[in-house]
Amino acid sequence: MKNSSLSLISALYNSEGNADLYKEIYYPIIRYSTIELYRKSDPNSSHYYALSDLNKLICELFDIDIPTLVLGHAVQLMGRGHGLAFEYFSETTSFRILDINEEISNDDIVEKANDIDEQLKELEYKFKMFLETEQLDCDKSFFDFFKDNEKAIASYINYSHDMELINEDYVNLTRFIQWAIDNDKHTYKLIKKVLWGSIIAGFLQRKNDAIGVSVRSDVNYYIDTSLIFALLGYDTIDNVNYARELIREIHESGATPTIHVLTQEEVKKILTTIESQGAPDPTTTLGEAFYRDKKSMSDLLHIRNDLFNILTKQYNISYPQESRTVLCELKSKYQKYPEIEILQEKWKRKKTDDDFREIHDVALCSIVNNKNKYKTNIESYDCYFVTRNMDLIEMFGKRMIPSSIIHPGNVILNLWIHCAQSKNIQQMALTEIVTRCLAMNQTDTQRRLRIFEKYATNAGLTQKDFQGMYTELIRRSAKTIKSTNLIIENEQSDSVCIESQVAMIKSIAESAIESNNQRLNMQIELNEQIKLLSSQLEVLQETTQQKDKEFKALHSDFENQEKILNDNRISHEEECKRYNTLGPLYVSYGRLKQEKYNLEKEKERYVSYGLFWCSYIVQWLFCILVIFSIVYICFKYFTSKEVPGLTWAIVIPLVSLILNFSVNKFKLYIFKSPVVGKAEIRDLQYKNWDLINKKRVEDTEKELKKVVNEIIQLGGKVEGTN
């Protein structure tokens, strides 16, 4: 994989979700590539594409070859969503883009990828500076680290077992990661993100189609004996940390770590053997821990007698118990398996009456394989045997695919495939690699030292020599590692020249001592430089303190002056702000007062007395006419005794007078003072005007009141208020 491809994948996958593992994995890369395929095609085409076209583009962009079967199944399951719609044709291994949102773009992803690419260059530089500062050797780069991790993931997911890619050779790189955790969170976050990208890249190369397979999340992990002893503290410090971290990660993911009854028995048998010997072999990792931590035989006796409580209460490990009869049956069943003799020959162990170590290993491998016998995918497996023994992994891994026997380094990926509940998979993956590399480096160092011990007497090696060689080996000195590899190669040959081996070991010891002395001298020189700089610093600090006092005095004066100026400025600004606010308010107040005055004038103009005077005069005229008519009728009646033709002379005025009363609501103004009548007319018209203009008056009054209140709150004066 190219560096740019790794950056692009890291930018593409922002989450580590596992709600739908395969959709989370395949969808982003297919979506990105499909958009690019769509953009490059003729816009007027029907947008039919062969899977081979899509796969070719993915190879160009990401340097990843996704099998056609897996790719087709993924496209089919994707269907619609997130601005894309597919139609898959299985007969022709082709698909059609039914719909694509025109606003969809890969520009933001490309931008993120470019940014990650630049950060990776900076990462390599920081790592180089770290090695120079710490005087460490490492011929591996971070790109090698990510690339080898991708290969290891692809190897496991395709049922191979190339776990040794990430090994002790990366220990100084992992030391840089540890440094980044404490000193450079940004760099650590980048490493974690890109490592996750390499895991995704490895997973995408899965050759078997497991999309849509029902996933088992209730998984048991049977822990091998060596890991149990490491968990109990009887191993190198790095291996102890590694085992405990592994158990913690299994628990956090919702799976179950388990110790099989045969493993329980093997642990007790080993402890019993040590008791019979009086002390553990100091050349073993168990013996090293025993003497390192100043343990006693009573401590080992306590573990043997109370193994159940220790593992269940302290580490929450599932501890099924069986009778001695069951144990005997299991031993009798598996001791006849031919794999026992194969392992004995491979490990150069003599056949004895009690070959429990081999029986245990063969039995555990057979048990977990039988439990997963009729299952064809990792996802459907519900139990695994976790061991660091690569011989077992290779032997039984070839007999059943996928294998149920896995290395601890594959547990995190396995948990993820089984939809682990943990939300810290990225961190767990990186933590596992760091602890694994440290542990493998410790183990490798011990292995190389044991070869030196073989020739210690002939080479005249002292404790100082061993300490020097240990330091160089644990630091992965390139020169020391190379020389040691030659010794190991000679050991594996049929004819070993002892004199040559001794000479090389002496040379390694001398070189180690010289390197340690150089490092010590450099440290002494550095300390002297530090002392000189410290004395210079003291003088500088005294001068600085005096200058600080002078500066503080000047600064205090400056602050006081600045405070006065600021207070004046703030007061001025507040006053300006207040008047700037009051100005518009006074304008609004004047406008509203004028509006109120105009409304009052309008109300006064609304009143008209014309109707009053007209009605007043008409009423008097009608009254006079009625009186005249009555007098006239009476005169005719008394003189001629006839009034038929004159009846209209009184009827018409009476009717008119009645109508006039109705129009004026029966108000007879002729019997009132004109002043009183005008007042009634005015009040009547005022009420009518108020009814018509009620909202205008209320709005004006309300707004005017609001403005007055705001002016008063700001300290302004308003006529008629306090």
Summarize the structure in words.
The chain has three domains: 1-209, no CATH class; 220-446; 455-603, no CATH class. 69% of the residues lie in helices and 4% in strands. The chain has helices spanning 3-12, 21-40, 51-62, 68-78, 107-134, 142-157, 171-183, 185-203, 225-231, 237-252, 261-277, 285-292, 297-305, 307-314, 324-334, 339-347, 356-371, 390-397, 411-417, 425-454, 456-459, 463-474, 478-492, 498-606, 610-640, 648-663, 674-692, 694-713; strands spanning 48-50, 80-81, 84-89, 94-100, 220-223, 256-258, 383-386, 405-406. Helix 1 (3-12) packs across helix 8 and helix 11 packs antiparallel against helix 13 (297-305).
Q: What descriptors fit this protein?
A:
3 domains; mainly alpha; 8 strands; 722 residues; 69% helix; 4% strand; 4-stranded antiparallel β-sheet; 4-stranded parallel β-sheet
The percentage of residues in β strands lies in under 5%
Mean pLDDT: 81
Q: Total number of helical segments?
A: 28
Q: Radius of gyration in whole Å, from Cα?
A: 50 Å
Please provide the count of β strands. 8
Ends distance: 84 Å
Oligomeric description of these chains = single chain
Number of domains: 3
What is the helix content? 55-70%
Low-confidence runs (pLDDT<50, min 5 residues)?
A: none
Q: Choose one word for the global shape.
A: elongated
Detail the topology: elements first, then pairings.
Elements: H1 3-12, H2 21-40, E1 48-50, H3 51-62, H4 68-78, E2 80-81, E3 84-89, E4 94-100, H5 107-134, H6 142-157, H7 171-183, H8 185-203, E5 220-223, H9 225-231, H10 237-252, E6 256-258, H11 261-277, H12 285-292, H13 297-305, H14 307-314, H15 324-334, H16 339-347, H17 356-371, E7 383-386, H18 390-397, E8 405-406, H19 411-417, H20 425-454, H21 456-459, H22 463-474, H23 478-492, H24 498-606, H25 610-640, H26 648-663, H27 674-692, H28 694-713
Parallel strand pairs: 5-6, 5-7, 7-8
Antiparallel strand pairs: 1-4, 2-3, 3-4
